[in-house]
Amino acid sequence: MSLVIPVDEYATDEWYPGFTPAFGHAPFVVEPFRTFSEQDERRFWFLDFHCPRGLTPLGTTWLEDCYSWGTQLTAEQMPLPHSRGITQRMAGTHVYAAAIPVESRYEIEARSVRMQRHLPGFLQGFKALWNRRVTEIDAGWRYFQGIDVERSSLSELGTMLAEARRYAQRAFEIHFEMMYPLLANHLGFTGMCTELGLAPPPRPPRPDAPVVLPP
Fold first, then answer.
1. 7-35 burial by CB neighbour count: b if 16+ within 10 A, else e?
2. pTM summary value
3. Is the Cα dihedral 12, 14, 15, 17 positive or negative?
4. Percent of the chain with pLDDT strictly greater than 70
5. CA-derived radius of gyration, the chain
6. Which of 20, 15, 64, 26 is nearest to 168 (CA)?
């Protein structure tokens, strides 16, 4: 039996003791990250696996800059036929996420056509694209590693923080740019195998799984 938890006690502008978040200042693609509202009770939310122990106020920059932005941007650009990405809400210090569905049958069909046109070129040029993205990420990482934080002034640290947020945002643009097409290709391959009657190989047992001996 499903357990439904009302959002009433979480529908508040203050989610962290002594900290009132300011929403609406960060750019977003489809739906901004925010705290829960009563309307959110009509949607399915899951505790996000990236940070099950919760976030600090500074950690919410990842939600705005990277998670919300990256998943929605790629879902629109690729696009994903049935989803416009993922949106997030805060309950206390914990992050909950939900898919943003595409409701219109016309839009789903149009987005499917666009994805089918995008996927072959992505797969054919995957190696070259991967190498370009790795080079870009490595270059940024070397830049930040070269900064002497202890000798930097407050003004320089502020500039570095802004640069670091933009670097993380770009990294997650790349993350979803690569992940979504690969997942779509994997699901397509799995579907084809199912149609051909090819069963997936058995999963290897987890290291901590109990050993069952035959009688």
1. beebbeeebeeeeebeeeebebbbebbbb
2. 0.81
3. negative
4. 87
5. 21
6. 64
